[in-house]
Structure formats: C-alpha cells, structure tokens
Specification:
Helix content: 25-40%
Number of strands: 18
CATH class of the largest domain: Alpha Beta
Largest sheet: 8 strands, parallel
Strand content: 15-25%
Radius of gyration: 21 Å
CATH superfamily of the largest domain: Metal-dependent hydrolases
Structural class: alpha/beta
CATH architecture of the largest domain: Alpha-Beta Barrel
Number of domains: 2
CATH topology of the largest domain: TIM Barrel
Length: 429
C-alpha cells in the first residue's frame, strides 16, 4: 500500500466524508461536498459505509491444542474478513493459557502470520487449568501480554476464591471477565428451560442460572469497589440487574453477542445443533430486552464469542454436540440486518464494537481524529452473499445461518494504513 492515499466519498456516522491517510495514520478528514485536492492514489468509497477497525473482545481460536477446529491463522483470517482489527482470545486452549509460555506462543504465532494485524490479545486463565481452585500467576500473565483474565466457560462457583481473584487481578491492573453461570443450576442443561425444552424433551437451563451469577458479580464489584466485565448476557433479568447496578455507579460492564440479538430458542426446533450455545438462546422477550439494553447503553459491548467446531462434532445427537457458534465472518452482516430494521443504529455498532471495547480493555482505536491509527473498514451495505463453507474464512462452519443469503459485507480492511483485505465478488457465491 502507498504511504499516503485518499479514501473518497464514504459515509461515516451518517455523513459523507473523505479521509486522507499518511504514514499509517489519519492525516485529515473532511465532510460533505468540501473538496481538498490531493495528488495521491484514491480509493473510491461511494456507496460504502466507513467504520473504524472493530475489536472483538471474546473469541476462541483453539490454538494451541485443537487446531482441527481453528488455529490462529484461520481465526485471524476470519477476523480480517469480518472487519475486526483486534481480537481477545480466550484461555480455554490445550494446554490452558495459565502461564507465560502459552501466552507468548499465541502472541508470537499471531505476529509471525499477521505482523501488521489483525492483532491478537490473549485473555489469561483466572485459575490454574480453569479448575476454579488455584489462582493463576496474574503478574506473569500480564507481563507476557495478557490484557484481561477469565475462567471462560467454567464458572468459578466458590465465592471466596472468586472474591480473591477479583482482588489480586485488580492489584495486577487486570480486568476479570466472568462467564455468568451458576453451575449447580445449569448442570445438564442443553437449551433454555421453558415451553420449547419441555416439548422437545430436553433438559433446560433456567435464566436464573445466569442472572443469579450476574447478581453475585455485581454485589462483589460494589462491595470491593473493583470493576468486573460480564460476558455474553442473554436474558432480560440480567439486563435489568445490570441497569440497577449502573444506576448506582457500580463499576460493571457487560457484553452480548449477535446471536442473542437475533435468534431465540425456537431455532432449536428439529434439534438443530448449530443453534446450541452456552448460555443458550432464550425467548423472544429476552431478545427484545437485550436489544433494548444495547440501544440504551446498559450493554456496553457486542462480542462474537466465536466458538468454532469441526463439522463432525456438531453432526451428532443434540445432547452430545458441543456448545458454540462460529461468528467472526458473519457478525457484521448479521448486525447490519438489525440496522436495516431500525432495531440498532450504526452508532450502536461503533460504540459497542470499537469505542467501548477499546476503553474497557485499554486498547488503541481509530476515532478518525488526526494522528489516530488508520484502521479502517469499508462495508458495502448492498452486497449480498451466501453463507457457505467456501465463503467463510474460519474453519468453523457451525453457524445457524449456514446456507442463508446475508446483505452487507466488508469490501476493504485497512490496518495501520495497509490494505490487508479486499473482497472479491466470487467470494460472495
């Protein structure tokens, strides 16, 4: 890519603008019909929406240990095509990322495969082996490059251990990300507990299994005066509790995922393993509440919880299938459908997928101000593409929208002033 170039006539936050990029940074931006002649190469952006490089603060890249599902290379390829300039990779690798050697391996491999981005920021294990008994070496993980800590999908049920984890993590200046699930209530649950689970004869997981843990985390954050980040919020009761906490100034932030904003438990009909995820898809009322939580700023972040699996792992009886949806490739297109319906605004996406993740986790972002890193996504809202094994960059093809036509896709992805991805029309087939 040239040292300097112009992106001309794009739409950013509802306004037409042009952006002058030089030496990997935003040099200038102007709006409307104003013209500034630059004798530099031009990228024609007419009809495209411009976004800052997105940050996904919750992905599973399966590397090391389960590369047949995904590896760092394929995961970052999916991130690049999906518009994500940085991802936070969770610790449930094999071996678990509970020590500096695993952290260093992940960062080194990402840097060797994608030296100019997308960038990988590891999330270290809260407890050794994710077993919930012994705290991991937080300072070692921080110094090796971890940006946060989480026990991921294995919630810490012991409240005393979790309290100490919050205290020691705070001392190490690391934020704890908690998977909110009471394991005693959720044990054996295969989907949301309710009418659909009764009809299908599947053991359900009640919403209170999530909201009870949300309440615990909020009260601990209040008592200890320590911030906490709540992962993949899925139900109305949790949204209400988070609203209550924020009204009282408790330092809590929360994320949800595209699948909780779009789909409900009815997708499980026919024992659809592609819709099996944890926390499970909830009722339509929960979907409506989570959307409202995003619009009103109760939910701070939209993350994919990208959880790739091999085809043969999902092609089994429902009870035996692993939880998880592959989301890096499809997130932006799926969310665009909510923008078209008027359920969300473009500003909601920028806030929840760039601005808030960067401030919560202390990461750089492009705010399109002079001197900012030129991490730029050009999104074509008119491009229709079919979700297929060939059109997904991730090795994980486990998405409920497989075979569907989606509208809107990333056409260009620039990171640090370098054009690293350009969509080809045949990729839409």
């Amino acid at each position: 890519m040239h040292r300097e170039f112009l992106i001309e006539d794009v739409t950013y936050r509802g306004e037409r603008c042009s952006v002058y990029i030089k030496d990997g940074k935003i040099e200038d931006i102007w709006y409307g019909h104003e013209q500034k002649r630059k004798e530099v190469p031009i990228i024609e952006g007419k009809g495209h929406i411009m976004l800052p490089g997105l940050i996904d603060c919750h992905v599973h890249l399966r590397d090391p240990g389960q590369e047949y599902k995904e590896d760092i290379g394929s995961g970052l390829s999916a991130a690049l095509a999906g518009g994500f300039s940085r991802v936070l990779a969770m610790a449930n690798t094999e071996p678990v990322n509970d020590n500096a050697s695993v952290t260093s391996y992940m960062i080194s491999k990402a840097g060797s495969l994608y030296p100019h981005g997308p960038y990988l920021s590891p999330v270290g294990a809260l407890t050794v082996g994710l077993k919930g008994r012994e705290l991991s070496p937080f300072y070692e993980l921080r110094d090796a490059g971890c940006v946060a800590l989480s026990n991921d999908g294995v919630p810490v049920g012991n409240n005393e251990i979790f309290r100490r984890a919050l205290e020691y993590a705070s001392a190490a200046s690391l934020l704890v990300m908690d998977h909110c699930e009471d394991p005693s209530l959720s044990e054996g649950g295969l989907m949301n507990e309710g009418e659909v689970s009764d009809r299908l004869g599947l053991k359900g997981q009640p919403v209170v299994a999530e909201s009870l843990q949300v309440a615990r985390d909020i009260l601990l954050a209040q008592y200890l005066e320590i911030p906490i980040h709540l992962c993949h919020i899925s139900c109305e009761q949790s949204v209400e509790l988070i609203y209550w906490a924020k009204k009282r100034g408790i330092r809590v932030t929360a994320e949800t995922c595209p699948h909780y904003l779009l789909w409900d438990e009815s997708l499980i009909e026919g024992y659809n393993t592609l819709a099996k995820v944890n926390p499970p898809l909830r009722t339509r009322a929960d979907v409506v509440a989570v959307r409202q939580g995003v619009r009103e700023g109760i939910i701070d972040v939209i993350a994919t919880d990208h959880a790739p699996h091999a085809d043969f792992e999902k092609d089994v009886p429902f009870a035996l299938a692993p939880n998880g949806i592959s989301g890096l490739d499809t997130a932006l297109s799926l969310l665009w459908s909510l923008v078209k319906e008027g359920e969300l605004e473009i500003d909601d996406l920028i806030r929840c997928m760039c601005d808030n993740p960067s401030s919560i986790f202390g990461l750089d972002k492009n705010g399109f101000k002079r001197g900012d890193r030129a991490d730029v996504v050009l999104f074509d809202p008119h491009l229709t593409w079919r979700v297929s094994a060939n059109s997904l960059y991730s090795r994980g093809k486990n998405t409920p929208c497989m075979g569907e036509d989606l509208q809107g896709r990333v056409r260009l992805h620039i990171i640090g002033g370098r054009l690293l991805y350009q969509h080809r029309l045949e990729q839409s087939q």
